[in-house]
Amino acid sequence: MSRSRRKTPIVGMTTCESEKADKATWHRKFRHAARMDIEGSQFISFRQYGSTWCMGKDGKQYLTDASTRFPEYLRK
Q1: How far apart are CA 60 and CA 56, in angstroms?
Q2: One digit per residue, pLDDT tens: the chain, 76 residues?
Q3: Cα 47 to the chain's mean position, in Å?
Q4: The overall pTM is greater than 0.85
Q5: Residue 11: what are its φ and ψ, rounded to 5°?
Q6: Do residues 11 and 61 touch, judged by C-beta distance below 8 A?
Q7: Distance (Å, rounded) from C-alpha 43 to C-alpha 40?
Q8: Where are the extended beta strands (E) located within the chain?
Q9: Whole-angstrom distance between the N-terminal and C-terminal Cα of the chain?
């Protein structure tokens, strides 16, 4: 597997490896609020308890000349 490369040069704009902890916290808050709403009288918005802007990554970018200038980003 030493020669495996990405086929699509799309990488995240971040130094963060994963958003796993952010997503777990977000879902935990949502599930807690859903359990507290026993009557089910009000609609609970999923976006109310977290935001993608507060997470570790800031989106993705397409590297146009990745194979020549950024070969390290194409590693799997």
Answers
A1: 12
A2: 677 888 888 887 777 778 889 889 988 988 888 888 776 667 777 778 888 777 888 778 888 877 677 787 777 7
A3: 14
A4: no
A5: -130, 160
A6: yes
A7: 7
A8: 10-12, 60-62
A9: 9
